[in-house]
């Protein structure tokens, strides 16, 4: 009689490991609750659960008026090739740390990981927004405190109002980093002086950390504005550049590029 021997099969189930994919870049401008861009002493952190995925220590203003740029390492799925790697659709948490302590964040502290290789701009502001009008309560509180009793509380602050009557709405004042209760603190060119046949000197009051550029047009009817080259001192060549404010008056030199030129000052705000 033939003996039948049982055959035991051992199957090892091993989860498929993920593979690295092109990173996703998240960048933008982080402001204080009073509208000023962070220049230093702040850190932007992205976490998945309790695991840190990326961080950026703010150390100044980057090109185009930004101050942070994060790189998220992407994974194809399955078992992550690294604990910090994320895959498309992962729910992530954003925080801005000051002295190692996370601050309240608006408009959101949530981020969903996007497609590998994608680039996302996300502008943030530390502070709270209890009335959900897009302006930080702290900034609105300062406006109320300087309103001579005209504003009883933050509920009285309307983003579309022009409290100080300088031509900018409260929301525009916040974005331009100017005080909405000071009529003299407004985004504008103060002086425009001809210094040669083709060169002009102009001044404007800047806000700390804000990035400014100048654009020009030959006709206000055309609606077509182009970047204007500038210099920071007389005698130096003009070039395409931005000016980062420090709270003082900034003086720049521009060259005319036609028989007629209209100049506009722009604060690069989100």
Give the secondary structure arrangement, pairings included.
Elements: E1 20-28, E2 30-31, E3 42-48, E4 51-58, E5 68-75, E6 91-98, E7 101-102, E8 105-106, E9 110-112, E10 119-121, E11 124-126, H1 137-145, H2 170-176, E12 189-194, E13 199-205, E14 211-217, E15 226-227, E16 230-231, E17 243-244, E18 249-255, E19 262-267
Parallel strand pairs: 1-10, 2-11
Antiparallel strand pairs: 1-5, 3-4, 3-6, 6-7, 6-9, 8-11, 12-13, 13-18, 14-15, 14-17, 14-19, 16-18
What attributes does this structure have?
270 residues; Immunoglobulin-like; 19 strands; 5-stranded antiparallel sheet; 4-stranded antiparallel sheet; mainly beta; single chain; 3 domains
Structural class: mainly beta
* CATH class bucket of the largest domain: Mainly Beta
Largest sheet: 5 strands, antiparallel
> What's the alpha carbon Rg, rounded to whole Å?
26 Å
Q: What's the total count of β strands?
A: 19
Shape: globular
Distance between the termini: 87 Å
Mind explaining what this structure looks like?
6% of the residues lie in helices and 35% in strands. The longest helix is centred in the middle third of the chain and has 9 residues, at 137-145. The strands form five sheets. Strands 3, 4, 6, 7 and 9 form a five-stranded antiparallel β-sheet that branches. Strands 12-13-18-16 form a four-stranded antiparallel β-sheet, with no helix packed on it. The radius of gyration is 26 Å and the shape is globular. The protein starts with 19 loop residues before the first strand and ends with a strand. By secondary structure, it is mainly beta. Strand 3 and strand 4 form a beta hairpin. It has three domains: 20-126, Immunoglobulin-like; 137-176, no CATH class; 189-267.
């Amino acid at each position: 009689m033939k003996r039948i021997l049982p055959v035991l099969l051992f199957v090892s189930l091993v989860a498929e490991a993920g593979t690295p994919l092109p990173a996703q870049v998240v960048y933008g401008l982080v402001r204080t609750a009073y509208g000023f861009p962070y220049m230093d002493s702040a850190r932007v952190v992205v976490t998945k659960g309790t695991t840190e995925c990326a961080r950026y220590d703010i150390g100044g203003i980057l090109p185009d008026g930004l101050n942070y740029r994060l790189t998220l390492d992407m994974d194809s799925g399955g078992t992550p090739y690294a604990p910090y790697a994320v895959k498309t659709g992962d729910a992530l948490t954003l925080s801005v740390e000051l002295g190692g302590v996370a601050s309240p964040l608006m408009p959101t502290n949530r981020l969903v990981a996007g497609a590998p290789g994608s680039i996302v701009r996300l502008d943030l502001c530390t502070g709270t927004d209890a009335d959900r009008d897009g302006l930080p309560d702290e900034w609105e509180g300062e406006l109320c405190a300087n309103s001579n009793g005209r504003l009883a509380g933050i509920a009285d602050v309307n983003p579309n109002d022009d409290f100080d009557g300088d031509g900018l709405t409260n929301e525009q004042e916040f974005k331009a980093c100017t005080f909405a209760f000071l009529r003299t603190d407004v985004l504008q060119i103060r002086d425009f002086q001809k210094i040669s046949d083709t060169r002009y000197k102009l001044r404007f009051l800047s806000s700390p950390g804000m990035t400014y550029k100048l654009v020009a047009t030959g006709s206000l009817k055309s609606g077509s504005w182009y970047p204007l080259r500038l210099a920071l001192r007389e005698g130096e060549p003009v070039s395409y550049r931005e000016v980062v404010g420090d709270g003082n008056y900034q003086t720049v030199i521009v060259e005319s590029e036609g028989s007629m030129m209209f100049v506009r000052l722009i604060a690069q705000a989100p």
